[in-house]
Queue: 3 jobs
Job 1
Amino acid sequence: MTDVPILKIEHLGHSYGKFQVIDDISLAIPPGELTALIGPNGAGKTTFYNVVSGRFPPRRGKVFFAGREITGKPAHKIVSLGLLRSFQITNIFPELSVRENVLIPLLLQQRRGYTFLRPLKKEKDLYRKADDVLSKIGILDAADQPAGELAYGDKRLVEMAIVLARRPKLVLLDEPTAGMNPEETERMIRLIKELAERFGTTFFLTEHDMKVVFSIAKRIFVLYQGGLLATGTPEEIRANPQVREAYLGGGTIQC
């Protein structure tokens, strides 16, 4: 494993007008580490993800990806380097088949537009790559179904397949189990662990479900009122009195 962090943040800050949303955040994530960012509602998690992924430029601080500074780069440039984000709300094309949803990022990698999708049925290599991703995710049997007809949990898996089709080095997962039932949640937990172990993908997730966080993450960052409150293993975070106070007024974090 390289000593260069896959993601390094130095004194990151962002504000909306006079309202400081995140302030002086510094952290580093090694390649391959399953990491989580947690915090109460309004802590600044979404803004942090928006700045890191290039949706917003930071007001201050620096962002490095795999040793390269990406501070202020637009989202599409950051994506091309291998840093992708999955959103809390499913981000798929419901009228297209599951396979076609995965073909789109493959086409974009080759700088070819979706209008060429139909003739590409003769290009077996792209279809093989799409089916390989769907097989890894576990939804190859739904490849020909319209994505919009799938159950909610399977739609989230399609979104994961769309992200993984770009062969990312780092994936920011924004509430990956939001809206899922317990069975779907367990399936997503197993998938993230398997993908990290088998393919070396680094996942950095934010999640309200503490069971998910403590099941997946090897290290946890806690954001509170825009600043980094604590960093540690799941056991250290669970036992941290400051974290318990921030979440539950001193009570025990259930997980």
Job 2
Amino acid sequence: MHPFATCGRVLSVGDHESIRMSRELLLRSARYSVISLTSDGVSKEELPSDLEIAIIGQTVDDLTASRMAANLHRTHPNIRVLRLTGQYSRPGFGFDGAFFIEDGPGAFLCSVDELAGMGGR
């Protein structure tokens, strides 16, 4: 188990099922409560009000990711949005943090933990 894990509620968004499911399993192993959806699913689902973090994966195109971040900030004022990108990509605007996927799972969990700590606790 990850030593800094909280038990926060996380929305994990990705448009490639195996990547999204792998991220969900990693987050669950660190004791996060995870809702895993496609970018299309986010616009169709009613999201719980207690989401702390949204993670928008690298498989979501930049325009959709930015729009989603803006909408999440509007509907969930306390949420923190983390954008995952490749090392040579820019995350765009409207995110509370960015993470390069090449940095690996341990660093990813540390980034999530750091954002969880920023969420008004």
Job 3
Amino acid sequence: MKTILITGASDGLGQALAEKLASENKVIILARNEEAMKEIAGRTGCSYYVCDVRAAKQVASTFDKISEEHGKIDVLINSAGVIVNAELVDIPDETIENVITTNTLGTIYATKAALIRMKEQKEGLILNVVSTAGITAKATRSIYNASKWAITGFTKAIQEEAAEYNVRVTGFYPGTIRTNLFAKAGLPLNGKALTTEQAVKTIEFVLSCDEEVLFPEIGAKHV
């Protein structure tokens, strides 16, 4: 049984991961929406902590509390994310800040907090849910692309650093996943998309591999 910490787990892919992994692992979920997490925890047996990944000090203190109450963290899945789809000149500054702080800084803060502990443990796995938006570019996606391209570079660099501590880091680059990510941003979800079950199955495969096996990156393309 592994202790798995999932950010952004009050809905979407994070919620689907928690629901699937909780039966055979100790799953800890983080998000801002306490009401939603409480409902998920009641059904699955997960533990939950209210945490805004955009706030560095809050992330650090939350991880301190998790370490005190649960001990070792085996896996961190960075799943928190938001999207904006508009021409740059039409995007409010506060929306730009929210996308960058959530997608980029949130992943960095959580990774730092986990890596501090995994460095001491000399083992662990960090999986960053990046998106194909971290390797492609599209008009009206400048800010979302920027937030995800930053995490692509961050993931590749941290893979090199973490390897010194026997910690594995994987970048997950899925295509569009059928979640409410778009709806929360007031956007339609057009065209083909992966189901959450398909995305979860891919991540489960990474988690199931021996500790000697590293996937620097893995993708899941919608069909």
